[in-house]
Amino acid sequence: MKHLKKIVVAVVLFVATSSFVNAQNKVAHIDVSELMSAMPEMKAAEAELKKLQETYGADIQSSVTEMQNKYKQYQNEAATKSDEENQKRMAELEGFDRTIKEAQQKAQQELQNKQVALLGPISDKAKLAIEKVAAAQGMNYVLDSSQGSGVIVAKGTDLLPLVKKELGF
């Protein structure tokens, strides 16, 4: 009977201690994608990326148009040229096509690199502000409540307004 009493007391103390520890863990959430899209730096970065993408797109489109014009010209003149000349022209067009595809790949890679270079500091700034606000609010955990991030219910403390205030907007 004494052992049973000791076990019951130990279990009660364990449950009480666990409840106390769990009550100390404060959890908040923030929609990081909403925060970042509201940051002025993000708007400037998106504008720069769009401009760069349009520049690459225009260059590639002019090359495609040039290739299409040559193809039409070569097709119209094919009957008056020798087989050897027509084969040279086809090889030239194939090389032109390859060059365009390489330019597209290079443009895509450069856009990705630029995106990383522009968005990295913005992401870091947002993270530092979130950490600062979370520490000031006594939060132990902050979950990203952006759509698709895995947070099913976000009814706790929302840090978005406080972080925006911290960042000055």
- Major sheet characteristics: 3 strands, parallel
Mean pLDDT: 84
Helical region count? 5
What's the number of extended β-strand segments? 3
Work out the radius of gyration: 31 Å
What structural class is derived from the secondary structure elements?
mainly alpha
Low-confidence stretches: none
CATH architecture: 2-Layer Sandwich
Q: Please indicate the count of domains.
A: 1
- What is the C-level CATH assignment? Alpha Beta
Oligomer: single chain
Beginning-to-end CA distance, first to last residue: 65 Å
Order of helices and strands: HEHHHEEH
The H-level CATH homologous superfamily, spelled out, is Skp domain
CATH topology: Protein Binding, DinI Protein, Chain A
Strand order of the largest sheet: 2-1-3
General shape: rod-shaped
What tags apply to this protein structure?
about 170 residues; mainly alpha; Protein Binding, DinI Protein, Chain A; three-stranded parallel β-sheet; about 80% helix; about 5% strand; rod-shaped
Short description:
The protein is mainly alpha-helical and 169 residues long.
What does this protein structure show overall?
Helices cover 78% and strands 6% of the residues. The protein has 169 residues and is mainly α. The protein has one domain (2-167): 2-Layer Sandwich (Protein Binding, DinI Protein, Chain A), CATH 3.30.910. The protein has a three-stranded parallel beta sheet. Helix 3 (40-77) runs antiparallel to helix 4 (83-137) and helix 4 crosses helix 5. It is rod-shaped. It starts with a helix and ends with a helix.
